[in-house]
Amino acid sequence: MKTKTVLALLCAGAFASAAFAQQGPRKFGWTPANAETARLDPGNYYGGRTYHPSAGGGNMHVDIKAQQPVTVFMAYAGEWSYALQHPEVMATLREVCPRTHVTETTFTCFISEPMTLVIEDERPSTGKAVVAGLGAALDQSDTAVSRVARVGLAAMLSGGTPAKRHFTAPNDVHVQYNRWSCIENCVQPEFQWVSVASEQYKLTPYMKIYSGYTPDTDGEQVSVFIKAPVPMIVALVPSSVAAQLDESRQALQNALANVSCQQRAVQKLQFQCTFNVADGPQSLVVVPENDDRVPHKKTDVDWQADKCVANCPAPQQPEAPQPQGQQPQGQQPPAQPPAGSQTPQN
User: Fold this and answer.
1) Domains in the chain with CATH codes
2) Which of 153, 217, 281, 334 is at 20 to 30 A from 258, Cα to Cα?
3) Structure pTM?
4) Distance (Å, whole) CA 35 – CA 50
5) pLDDT (average), residues 252-273
């Protein structure tokens, strides 16, 4: 039984992809996340989001639009935190992925350790005691304590409170953060191997027929495991055909001539087949290859189908056959050429 379980798990991932193909794979892209607007005076700095990349690093993606030119760069998170406490070192920050003279751009950078987005107003500062003040946030979608602290520090550097701060030459900078997320086929069907028939019985010369399976979608997979003391015939045939089989070998041979999902002279094997909705109900036929001297020993049969169990598309309906000579619904017969015209010759 352990062998069957391992084999079923190994083939599950490989064969589920056929059903996923009906919807298509997930597609990912940059989508808008939260946004904020910073107001800067000449020479001011503004600290945006701090990124914490996963192992191996990753990209960040931000849309920036400013009224006056700004410089945008990434600063090491530790250095930025230190500069918040010691504004005199702000101008010495190491700049990663710097981009200057920005008024409207999509800013990207690959980072491998925690870094903070920094925006600097490029206009000359009029301040004397402080190299550069910090811009105040006008609106922002997150309310992290660190952002509030920066706004408060900006007010202290300018000699006031956040509510009373006045800007001599305001430069409003809009920052639109983006996240890498699914944009198409996001809710995928979930598939699971479902038991159709499972039995351990004492072998006889007689035919065993298991029914109860109908494919729900095109490309649906089934898996059959057999373990027997003698070589066996194992085949999946239409249920309408299986219902007409008797114990004659000739009837079975005739049926097998028209099916592809079959194995001959096997004693221990797991195999898979694919079915479409148009194939209709199927039955599993198991019988010894030779009915002479069949030992009454245990035989294992396990039949599973890879079925959708969640987020399933609407069941497909088999196309009804069209009566001979009748045009499919919605189609018109080809127009006849006008009288007196000549039909082109091939």
Assistant:
1) 2-22+188-310 (2.60.120.680), 27-183 (2.60.120.680)
2) 217
3) 0.53
4) 14
5) 94
